[in-house]
Amino acid sequence: MASPTTYAPETLEHLKELLANDIKVKVSGIDVDGVLRGKFMAKDKFLSAVSGDGFGFCSVIFGWDLHDQVYSKELLISNKSNGYRDLLAVIDLSTFRRIPWENNVPFFLVSFLDPDTKEPICADPRGVLKTVVERAESNGWRCLAGCEYEYFQFKETAQTLAEKNFSNLQPLTSGMHGYSMLRTQLNNDYFHELFDETAKFEVPLEGHHTETGPGVYETALAYTTALRMADNAILFKYAAKSIGMKFGIIPSFMAKPWGNLPGCSGHIHVSLRDKDGKSIFAVSPSELKTGRAGAAYPDTKYLSQEGEWFLAGVLHGLPDIMPMLVPTINGYKRLSGGEAFWAPNAVTYGYDSRAASIRIISPPSVPLEATRLEVRVPGADMNPYFAMSAIFALGMRGIDKKLALPCPPISQMTPEDRSTGKVQMLPISLEAATIRMMRPESIARDPQVFGDDFVEHFGGTRQHEVKLWNEAVTNWEVERYIELA
Question: Which residue numbers delimit the GS catalytic domain (predicted)?
Fold first, then answer.
């Protein structure tokens, strides 16, 4: 399991020592789309913010979308009526690292607080996940997570993308070559630099290989605590895009850039552990031979009762928090292929099943302490803070309410069960998912999950995304209708 940043400062004096030879510091927060929003600060200004309450940061980053277009409706945090006033940005010293490809400039992440109440704002991704993690800690649990990204790469730059009108893009390599030892010899320096530079950036990787599809890589980030995992996931994207620039390559974490090829996943592995590091999801050593008595199905017999309740909580709430896992218009195109592309689009689970929305990873396929759940619904375009917050909040709600599994495992389902309604299908578009999340009885509105303020603000941002999509005229429409309609 990855450790915290190895040289995080312990005191202000220690911080000053670490920055003794620096003149500037880079800081960044995260917006609702998972985009890093930050700036350089003079060292003296930075140290003043650390020793005080933080520093002012324009709230407009929660009032516009990923292309800096102001949201279509007034939202709770940043709007015309409050003049896009400043938020309070609080520097998290535990996130200290240096950016190796930027002359080792010091880097820190921030969280955003309401300047009046000093409480986390409802839509700050780091603040939302911190709240969920602290809820777990109050029960004596630690939230642990891992993240795997699949991503296409193109021999393009931001300039050539615009010049080509984002069409006829050149993939990094051709053909379908998953786990290829040969394809990594192409673009070899870039392939290795992704691994090596992220290690220096304190974003350790567990695995890095080609995946099936032209120019596709898959990278698994080292398992660690949930907040650090979300930080690492966001910063891996930053690292990959930055390193790619050096080689004239754009790594794309868009969920479905090609219509006829599998999409890009952002699978999340989760578990709970107690203060001694023991897995809450694992059965006792004495149950390893026969499995847990009273398990709902054979697929869950190597999950503890708490693990089964956690799984049930995620399954019950999954349809209501889909925008947290699949936040873009394009992300639902990835799910439209369903199991044919290993992109599950239903409320399903199963032991070691990559066809299910939730894959149970437990003995006998892994050691006892490696027992965990893999949530396979998110795409590579997910915001990891919101996705992990949703999974852990729903799971802990399942434990609290001792929820029963809502359906049998996928191994006991038939194709006909989907058409008869025995298998609950997930929303098939961002519009449908947002409507479901925002309805009054949505589980997302449960204070144990996200609550009304978050749902209204984040839901409003998704309504904006849907509005822009509904107003857009696509190349497909022009090609299909301009002559013959």
Answer: 125-485
